[in-house]
Amino acid sequence: MTDTKAETPVAEALASVHTTNFPELLRQLGGCLLVTTYQAGKLVILRPDGASINTHFRSFNRPMGLVADRERLVLGARVEIATFRNMPDVAKRLQDPPRHDAVYMARSGHITGAIDIHEMAWDANGDTWYVNTLFSCLCTLEERSSFVPRWRPRFVSHYAPEDRCHLNGLAMRDGKPRYVTALGETNTPQGWRVNKRDGGLLIDIESDEVVTRGLSMPHSPRWYDGRLWVLESGRGALVTVDPETGERTDVARVPGFARGIDFLGPIAFIGLSQLRETNAFTEIPITEDNSDRLSGVWAVHIHTGRTVALLKFTGGVQEIFAVQAIQGVLFPEIVHEGDLLASAYSLPEAALREVQFSPPKAEDAKPAAPATGYGAR
User: Residue 18: helix, strand or coil by DSSP?
Assistant: First the structure.
């Protein structure tokens, strides 16, 4: 493990330290990380900045699930799903000379109501799927409805705002929703709480069969590199699961409640959360083993299981939900309020060709910079 390097906190209560190799690791892998913390109400961008990781915080109301690539970003918050589009031409208005290689501008918000949105993903058609934990189902978006239920576990008898099994994680395979995790095979209001220590399960949506049971608070299933991965949060373990037999193999252990994962090359970036005394996710193995109660992002090599880098929050952030890598973007910005959002416009290509700025007045010493930034869509 390399020495840790302190960074300047974004705000007094928000601070972190990281291993000195973390910035170069992201540069070598060609991406940045987005992290949600519903406890702190922040979407955090981890972006390499010289010898440091620049932790850039944006405030949202209970941000949890998200999915992003170079073109768009979708974020699940307390009562809505917010959609952002990358308008890279706006970067020149942020800093001179420009340094941002993506600027995600808010485009729309879909009101779902408070349904406890958990993980999100896109299918092969680009449609957004998300876990509706309160109603124990997978959903998609439709303009007239708060949400459109598309699937629920067969042991859940009906839709009800009762968090019956704590459905939480979603994995796509071949462009379709394929695997989900839940904390209990239960059909009563918050029934999963009775056996949260090892009552978790992984379900194959296609067959509607349970792949494996007895998991300790599973989260974040993923299909990657030809293997099915899952985090056993209660043990702080990264695990592979044979989708045919359900056999489980520990790949790595991390020193905290593991929730939220994404991959860049051979590296898994895993979110770690502290478990406070008042948190519902206590009385599990990792709580007994981890007196330090760490929170942050751990970088684990998936072939060796070794931790190769880490970022640890030292103030303000105790719980992490999602970790999302964006391949091909190193230093993005996210804009969801303020003057820049009010004066930056995205137009269709045909209309953009007919946009003109008024010429400067003859008496002006030099042309004024336009107050607008245009981009095609």
Answer: strand
- The verdict on whether omega for the bond into residue 48 sits within 30 degrees of 0, i.e. cis, is no
User: How far, in Å, CA of 170 to CA of 322, rounded?
Assistant: 12
The Cα–Cα gap between 45 and 243 comes to 33
Total of domains in the chain: 2
CA distance 121 to 307: 26
Q: In Å, how far are 22, 216, 329 from 28, measured between CA atoms?
A: 10, 34, 12
Residue (of 85, 127, 109, 126) closest to 332 by Cα position: 85
Measured between alpha carbons, how far is 327 from 101 in angstroms, rounded to an integer?
12
How many beta carbons lie within 10 A of that of residue 152, not counting itself?
20
Dist CA 373 CA 335 (whole Å): 13
β pairing state of 373-376 and 344-347: parallel
Give Cβ neighbours of residue 2 (< 8 Å, ≥ 6 apart): 19, 20, 21, 309
* H runs (alpha helix) in the chain: 22-29, 285-289, 339-342, 349-352
Strands 66-68 and 296-301, bridge-based pairing: unpaired
Give pLDDT tens digits for 97-131.
889 999 999 999 999 999 999 999 999 999 999 99
Q: Do 294 and 373 belong together in one domain?
A: no
In DSSP terms, 227 is beta-bridged to 224
Entry pTM? 0.89
Domain of 321, in residue numbers: 4-339
pLDDT in tens, 221-256: 999 999 999 999 999 999 999 999 999 999 999 999
Contact 104, 332 (CB under 8 A): yes
Q: Are 93 and 339 in contact (CB under 8 A)?
A: no
Residues 370, 304, single domain; the answer is no
